[in-house]
Amino acid sequence: MNQQQKTWTASVIGASGYSGAELIKLLKRHPGIEIEALYAHTQAGKHFSELYPAIPCDKVFQTYEGQTDSDIYFLALPHGEALRLVPGLLAAGKKIIDLSGDYRLEKVDEHKHFYGGDKSPEAVLQYGMPELFRDEIVKSTAISNPGCYATSIILGLAPLFRGGMVGLEVESVNVTAISGISGAGRSAKTELSFSEMSGNMRAYKVGKHQHTPEIMQALGTSATEPSFRFVMTPMIAPYVRGIYSVLNVRLASPATMASIRELYAGFYADAPFVRLRNGVTEVSHVANTNFCDVSLAFENDGSLVIITAIDNLVKGAAGQAVQNMNLMLGFDETTALL
């Protein structure tokens, strides 16, 4: 029996949050996956359908106490929690996809600076961005799923840094990225209530967002010793899902739109979930999908403007996790995602 014919069992730890629920929705329609258990300590004893009636699933939330019965484990937990659980799952020989930032960064000092806490990862899991590391993901058993802002920004910039275009050099990148409220998670917070956010928009974590070192690492440099100037301003707006990123890029020498479009088209030729758009993309174009849309333009001063749109809960979290799982287990990359 080959991998494509096998039915794999999967469990989700942290299944009551928005990303966890999105995972359940995708796994329920996957032909090669059987959901074995859902873990959510604060919701233990409740049926999944009590929290999410729109998603047909009859499982009851349990408390995770080190169970290792499933073939693959998804961890959709707050930052810091996976550090406690991943070592045991690795020791048990389980396949793992961690949706938190606990295992994304190679440099311990960057992890401590941007994530805080007194515990750092003892190992770095394979970074799970299929468009950049497909071959490595196929051979991996444990994946660190990219962050949502990081996904939208890295996919917008990667061809410039990894596309091999001779003479192309980036001097600076200035990013304004806007997220829907679901990006902050399901926990009740006064500042995210309807009365606070309706008709409102605001920046947050300016100058120290935890996805910054992840972005720089994927582009071949680091947040502490950057090879180009990088400024990121994350913002939150009163819509539910989606990330809209506007990247203003200063190139060291002029380039034509034809050459840039050719670079991007070639780089993503085999990427089923990245779409190079002719017009300006919008959040509504990608909502509830695993696509990342990319639009390109030049300003009058010669700076390159890249606009990307993703659904933060799908391509920015659960959908990318399933995409990674498909590659790990030998399924077609798009299974359950189109």
Largest sheet: number of strands, sense, barrel closure: 7 strands, parallel
Number of strands: 14
* C-alpha-based Rg, rounded: 20 Å
**Cα distance spanning the termini:** 26 Å
CATH class of the largest domain: Alpha Beta
Number of helical stretches of at least 4 residues: 10
Q: Structural class of the secondary elements? A: alpha/beta
Compressed to H and E, one letter per element, the order equals: EHEHEEHEHEHEHEHEHEEHEEEH
The order of strands across the largest sheet is 3-2-1-4-5-7-6
Helix coverage percent: 25-40%
Low-confidence stretches: none
CATH fold naming of the largest domain: Dihydrodipicolinate Reductase, domain 2
GO molecular function, one term: NADP+ binding
Family: Belongs to the NAGSA dehydrogenase family. Type 1 subfamily.
EC number: 1.2.1.38
Catalytic activity: N-acetyl-L-glutamate 5-semialdehyde + phosphate + NADP(+) = N-acetyl-L-glutamyl 5-phosphate + NADPH + H(+)
